[in-house]
Amino acid sequence: MSGMPSGPDPQLPTLRDGQVMIRRWQPEDGAALGPDLLGAFADDPAGAPTADADGRLLAFAVEHHGEVAGRVSVRLVGARVGELRWAVAAGHRGFGVAVRATRLLVGYCFTDLDLARIEAFVPPDDRPSIRTAGRAGLRKEGVARGRASRDGQPADELVFARLPTDPEPDSRNGFLAVLNAGLPTKRVITQGLLRNGDGDLLMCELTYKREWDLPGGVVDPRESPAFALVREVAEELRVDVRPTRLAATNWLPPYRAWDDAMLFVYEVELLGMRTEELFDHVMLEPREIRHLHWCALDQVDGRAAPYVGRHLRSIAEELDAARRGGREPATLYLEDGQLPG
User: Fold this and answer.
1) How confident is the model at residue 46 (pLDDT cuts 50, 70, 90)?
2) How far, in Å, are 80, 266, 272, 295 from residue 240 at the CA level?
């Protein structure tokens, strides 16, 4: 059998993996599962049939040890795209039934229906379903904001998907790809400390926010923080710098509309010119930077975000302590600009 099923009553196959079987859904299967479990399919057409009127909903009963244990379905929602759903009765959970059933259905969708994408939407707090999606080879892709409705209010759902070219979930590459897609990520920011002969710091007056900030920016995917700093300064100021020392790493908690981030602060030096020549050569990126200023440390407060003043003072205190002790300054680990604790 190949190609899309047609009509309201397609001939669905029976598929087995040795422990679980999925077969065409029958009306009496609903009685075996009960109304609570079928609530997971509440927006399927009345009676949770095998297919809706145009054959775009394909539903299977899941059997485990000869009993109806659950239901899996795929709704054809676009050109070669299917939306996967599953639910397993309480007495059959913990045995991998959902994973086995979804793998059987995903395989059928790719080989027999020639789908190009299988996707699933899972509530962020439904950890068992998140695990099932991953073990079935679906990778987390993001968040569909407000897609669902719970208690009359819009609710977010996590988006998972699998393509026919993805490696099998039991393979090493497949496991690592699913794990990598589901791991937390943090925003990474890189900034530079450039001082003039008086020890003042270079600060940027920005076009898109009120606070001044150090030169730098967001690190792109697969880019080192040090390289990103060189790139950002070249793009925004049209001058070349070299990071000479990592002064601090600073964890930033959520601030206004921003999520948390890791900030790398480097000491830098100019290349090809003296510091006092900077303003003669700089060419500002007008969409981002309005002016440049040399600022003493006590001039930063009130002009920059509070955490900027905190981490600049922490770095300055370490430089003073190192100078007094006749040692090299240490790279600081900071949280919200201060030493932890």
Assistant:
1) very low
2) 49, 14, 8, 21
At which residue do the structure tokens 């020549």 appear? 277
- H or E element, residue 181: helix 172-182
In whole angstroms, give the CA distance from residue 98 to residue 132: 7
For residues 258 and 142, give the distance between their C-alpha atoms in angstroms, rounded to a whole number: 17
d(CA 276, CA 196): 7
pLDDT digits (tens, 9 = 90+) for 194-249: 999 999 999 999 998 899 999 999 999 999 999 999 999 999 999 999 999 999 99
Distance CA 45, CA 52 (A): 7
CA distances from 330 to 136, 298, 327 (A): 47, 23, 9
d(CA 282, CA 278): 6
Assess whether pLDDT exceeds 50 at residue 1.
no
DSSP assignments along 258-273, one per residue = B--EEEEEEEEEESSS
Instruction: Spell out a b/e string for 151-176, using b for 16 or more CB atoms within 10 Å of the CB, else e.
Output: eeeeeebbbbbbeeebeebeeeebbe
Q: Quote the radius of gyration of the chain (alpha carbons, Å).
A: 29
Q: Give the model's confidence band at 334: pLDDT under 50 very low, under 70 low, under 90 confident, else very high.
A: very high
Q: What are phi and psi of 213, to 5 degrees?
A: -155, 165
97: Cα separation from own chain's centroid: 28
Positive or negative torsion for Cα 134, 139, 140, 146: negative
Q: CA 3, 5, 7, 13: dihedral to nearest 10 degrees?
A: 140
**Closest C-alpha among 267, 279, 201 to residue 238:** 279
